[in-house]
Design brief:
By secondary structure, the chain is of the alpha+beta class. Helices cover about 70% and strands about 15% of the residues. Helix 2 (about 90-115) packs antiparallel against helix 3 (about 115-135).
Amino acid sequence: MTKCKKEKTTAENQQVNSEAQGAEAATENVAQTPEADKMAEQNVSDADKTASANSEAEEWKDKYLRLSAEFDNYRKRTLREKMELIESGGEDVIKSMLAVMDDFERALGAMQSATDVAAVREGVELISQKMRDTLRGKGVVEIEAVGQPLDTDLHEAVAKFPAGEEKKGLVIDVVQKGYKLKEKVIRYAKVVVGE
């Protein structure tokens, strides 16, 4: 009996040990579960953050591409408008000059059959005055030169001529008139300077 009791006690001990180990394992599983849950939550949270960042990056990329295309279209449109302005920029001046051209044609026709030279001269002078007025209306002004000191911003000296001490450095003759459009020189006056 003693032997039997011993065996029974050993079996009970083994069973108790087995149950204790099972309980410890369950306790360990219970203890590991919050950590595992935290790890799983962190992995899910990281995946959500990555997905969110990827979607935000795609959204910004789309916005960038749209903005880039819009700017490219704007640049092309303004370039096209600028070219149209350049092409038609002189249209206003040309239209105003057409009236003067018509007067010249009438004068040329009248000269063919005119016997009165004074009347033809007067007509040409009127056309010349109309031309000056038209140019002045567009902002074109003749550069004053004769009697003025040589100014290289306005004049181009093409010759020097001995003119005495009182006219030294002054413009004594204009070979070709110069003009300014508003304040910008569009053609320098070609002048003879006294020395």
